[in-house]
Amino acid sequence: MLSNREVCRPKQMKMSQVENLQYLRGFGSEFSSEDPRCPGALPKGQNSPQKCPYGLYAEQLSGSAFTAPRSDNRRTWLYRIRPSVGHKLYGQFPKGNVVHDWTECEPNPNQMRWKPFDLPSYGESVDFVEGLNTVCGAGDPKLKVGLAIHIYSCNVPMKNRGFYNADGDFLIVPQVGTLKITTEFGRLEIQPNEIVVIQQGMRFNVNVTGPSRGYILEIFGRHFVLPDLGPIGANGLANPRDFLTPVAWYEDRDEIYEIVSKYQGKLFVCEQDHSPFDVVAWHGNYVPYKYNLENFMVINSVSFDHCDPSIFTVLSCQSDQKGTAIADFVIFPPRWSVQEHTFRPPYYHRNCMSEFMGLILGQYEAKRDGFNPGGATLHSIMTPHGPDVKCFEQASNEELVPFRVADGTQAFMFESCLGLAVTKWGAKVCQKLDPDYFKCWQGLKKHFKEPEFV
Ligand SMILES: [Fe+2]
């Protein structure tokens, strides 16, 4: 467990961009934070005093069952100007495009590749919530098992609108544009090549200054953890100290605010007469956090053969089956390639897992053409895939000296043990599905030569 009081600035950000935002370091830690405008706002020695300091209300946000084992128990106490219950009735959110109906389309085992998803067109005003569309998914938030993969595409701030997901956690992967995110816990800013996890129930607002696009992995009813490291040891891959949680920040604004809720796969909205971002102080271990993918410590083969991609797992959401993930978030970061007598790109394979890939920047090493930043691929359970013809021919014949791979690029994968179903939006409405994807493997030549005397 790391110090919960260590305050830092992320090294990759310029001060002019971050408005002096500060963060707490650590993963799964017990944190506590007070907005410096109200010193002593956290009650001393108890969670729910008869009267809280400064006349605040105490409210607990539970991210696990009260009785979950201590190692899995997640909760935070919020000390706020008004409790979050002070809102009017929910009604349907008219601009919601989120879908959890996995029977919209017939099953399709083909390899799928999407061209870059559209940014809002000129003259359109779309905020983060309005610009959410579901590509594929599986399971049911009512049963707390499953996931959904969404694309967001927006170009204006959410203004007086807060959003929370009652169904699960969002892992957000920006690809275009910086997101300035205000949460009940404080403010974060993330840029492409960083990720942010906003967990079930946490209210947040996204501010953008121009066209913005990215990917979202949503998991139902469970939370992300760091993968076990086994023989790697105590350090490596994503180190806990590089995860950053915001410090408490509040606004006391008596204005009409919309609260949008994603509940059982649909969006609802209600009004309240004040900002939901009125938490003056908080303590607990159920928090939003961000992570810069540049900080990932890459482990790989230094002798021969290509390691399985699990070696690049940043975060994992485990199923009840040992070592099997509802969802892994895996990246393919810049690194050295040094293996001897080895076909170095990813090997051809068929997998009992579903693999959804996206590209944040650059070119993916196994497919130079057709898979572009802002696009995606889906290789479903047991559907064969691997390097395209060009990549195979090149990698089979190149001189195996040490060289850098993936510099200036960042591809990632959402891998799941569940069978993912594509929505109508993903299959048709977005109009980005590339019908020619399968052709990239059609020219694979036969190199087999029988021995002369058999
Ligand atoms: Fe694969």
UniProtKB/TrEMBL annotation:
Coiled-coil residue windows: none
SUPFAM superfamilies on file: RmlC-like cupins
Functional pathway: Amino-acid degradation; L-phenylalanine degradation; acetoacetate and fumarate from L-phenylalanine: step 4/6
The gene coding this protein: LOC108744021
Catalyzed reactions: homogentisate + O2 = 4-maleylacetoacetate + H(+)
EC number assigned by the record: 1.13.11.5
UniProt name for this protein: Homogentisate 1,2-dioxygenase
UniProt cofactor(s): Fe cation
Keyword list, A-Z: Dioxygenase, Iron, Metal-binding, Oxidoreductase, Phenylalanine catabolism, Tyrosine catabolism
Keyword presence, Metal-binding: yes
Record-listed Fe cation binding positions: 349, 355, 385
Enzyme class: oxidoreductase
Family named by the database record: Belongs to the homogentisate dioxygenase family.
Domain Homogentisate 1,2-dioxygenase C-terminal: start-end pairs: 295-448
Entry's Gene Ontology BP terms: L-phenylalanine catabolic process; L-tyrosine catabolic process
A GO MF term: homogentisate 1,2-dioxygenase activity
